[in-house]
Structure of Polyphosphate kinase 2 family protein:
Amino acid sequence: MTHYPFRLPAGPVDLTSIETNAAPGFKGGKKKGKAALFALGDELSDLQERLFAEGRSGSERRLLLVLQGMDTSGKGGVLRHTVGLVDPQGVKITSFKAPTEEERAHDFLWRIRRQLPEAGYIGVFDRSHYEDVLIARVRELATPEEIERRYTAINDFERELVDSGTTVVKCMLHISADDQKERLLARLDKPSKHWKFNPSDIDERAQWPRYREAYEIALERTNTEHAPWFVIPSGKKWYRNLAIGRLLDDTLRGMDLQWPVADFDVEVEKKRLVDEAPLS
Amino acid sequence: MTHYPFRLPAGPVDLTSIETNAAPGFKGGKKKGKAALFALGDELSDLQERLFAEGRSGSERRLLLVLQGMDTSGKGGVLRHTVGLVDPQGVKITSFKAPTEEERAHDFLWRIRRQLPEAGYIGVFDRSHYEDVLIARVRELATPEEIERRYTAINDFERELVDSGTTVVKCMLHISADDQKERLLARLDKPSKHWKFNPSDIDERAQWPRYREAYEIALERTNTEHAPWFVIPSGKKWYRNLAIGRLLDDTLRGMDLQWPVADFDVEVEKKRLVDEAPLS
């Protein structure tokens, strides 16, 4: 696998030290970046279809892409522009909202387990079980002891996923508070974006330093070898989409996906078709 | 809405009289056809997003695209190339397989109802409740009286969908037995396509005339004003994809989708952002 400049190294995390507007590992600007993503489309589609074909032929392998990030960091943009490059039949997208009453009556991983991708699929979580150590920590929706327990529970859960055939790719879309302010103002400027805005977005933003801290702790505690974190500089939307596209592409290539071998005699079947009786 | 040469007229249906390799309403060949579909992408994406935005803002409107057709007719190709043009976040695809034991214990529409798109979504059925009057008729999986009951039940069900805000678009991907033979042979020639082939596909093909008859009856009986059938000549894959792309585009344009109007004071929110206290 390619060296990823945005692979999070082990140890304490300081998000303020990671530039959000950088484009590590890519020479070129927006135009070249968009073209590079578009050029990835055919290969990504081919790899996704191989994964799907494998799943239909008894393989247990699948891929789970976890997208986390502050409001406006571009989880939706990645879904549209990067995940949108592959056949939608092989993709299962789940957007996790505030848990329902039924969901809250269960362990925090209950609703997550119900949305895991089946064999052969690419599953994408738009927000995820990480909210249970992010907003839950900031808004004190659980006791400190419960939050503490969850970091370990998450690592165990992801270990279990990996052991049963799921490749787990976790991306934190990293923007600064200034990036967010700019994007919220841009939303307010465009009537076609007003539906995405809610006045509570600004209230939530006031908690920015506490969210950053919650992210830093979560990233450090759950940055395992089996399910590592990638912190994607997301100030430039084209770079964010491209970086995740390349990460998916490299991850799928690393799985060495092969077309399933026919479990029937190809020549016999051809002959049956060629020799068939008239259809009437 | 544009005039559709492939809108099925009322009355008895004779599929053998409908050319599968035609390209009605389009001047040009494969290259121009592919370019025309690609050129639709931005508009389709914009319309889909408006529909989605409406759904988030209280509208009950949604779209349901039903895809039916014989094996190899290209339901998967339409999903990949046409439905794949829009944001996967706003699309819910359901592939209906042979019903499970639980599903068979219920009325045939039970499992269909569970997969209907939510408000704002484009739902796509890859096979559908029509299998219950197609394979069910050919393979005698239900009594003639039950099959007879189902045509009316389908029309009532679709009426109910339309009345509650769903625009229903039903496409039959029309190929000939010769088209299918060619495609099955092509699958057998390519190792990357073997996973899509099953020897039982050839057994099923022997029932072609009975399937054609079952389609003709189903199309005639369920070709209602509220949920009409489109018979898409699907011998040319590029034309099939383009025809359905145009049909979706025209259908969405016909819905006159508007961006939701802000339910907050835009200037007040801008001011809050600009004047905010430092985030620390």
